[in-house]
Amino acid sequence: MNGVPFPVGPCVLALVVIAAIYDLHARRIPNWLVVIGLGAGLVVQCALHGAIDGMLLWAGGTLTGGAVLLPGYLLRMMGAGDVKLMAAVGCFCGASGAFEAALMVCMVGGVWALAEMLRHRQMRAGLHNMAAVLIDVSMPADGAPRDSGQGTGNTGNTGNTGNTGNTGNTRTRRPTTGTLPYGVAIAIGTMLSLFMNV
């Protein structure tokens, strides 16, 4: 991010800490927090860079932050709230800063998920679920080879929302450790990224 101008750092830290605390207790990230973050990010960017440049930085960061985590949501590995929170973080940082922060978040989340699987001795089931997700994604759109049975499909999730509407194959998914509050991983990864750029 080539330095973190004031008040970007305090605003982002406040956003991710509140989101992490809320996620730990409620296992979801509220939309009102994301909306406040997006609004504050627009104001901060415009104040720092002027209206036009500020809006461009805001839009680039928002799209980049959300886009990096979007595949995880599409693969049912995290909730929509996680993607929206990362977009709100990105709107403060611009596109390059959002990309750096999102990569750090993915690294923290991956290490955490791996540690949880090892701690609960669920590595085999976790790898099996990952393979099931990849096979599911690689199947044709008509879904002919897939089992049409409804299941929880939630065993591989590491996020917050969208758990009730998932469709999965109950014959191929195995129970693992459950869901991780991914808002915490977003908070840790974002803080690491900010501190590395101070």
Topology of this structure?
Elements: H1 8-26, H2 31-49, H3 51-74, H4 80-119, H5 123-138, H6 182-196
Helix pairs in contact: 1-2, 1-4, 1-6, 2-3, 2-4, 3-4, 4-6
Question: What this model shows, in words?
Answer:
This protein is an all-alpha fold and 198 residues long. The protein has a domain at 8-110 and 181-196. The chain contains 6 helices and no strands. Helix 1 (8-26) packs antiparallel against helix 2 (31-49). The relative contact order is 0.18. Residues 146-171 and 173-178 have low confidence and may be disordered.
Gap between N and C termini: 9 Å
Mass-distribution shape: globular
**What do the pLDDT scores average to?**
79
The string of secondary-structure elements, in order, is HHHHHH
Which regions have little confidence, pLDDT < 50, spanning 5+ residues? Answer: 146-171, 173-178
- Share of β-strand residues: under 5%
* SS element count, helices: 6
Q: Pairing-aware structural class of the strands and helices?
A: mainly alpha
- Main beta sheet, described? none
Work out the helicity level: 55-70%
SS elements, strand count: 0
Rounded to an integer in angstroms, the radius of gyration calculated over CA atoms is: 18 Å
Considering the chains and any ligands shown, give keywords for the structure.
single chain; 198 residues; mainly alpha; globular
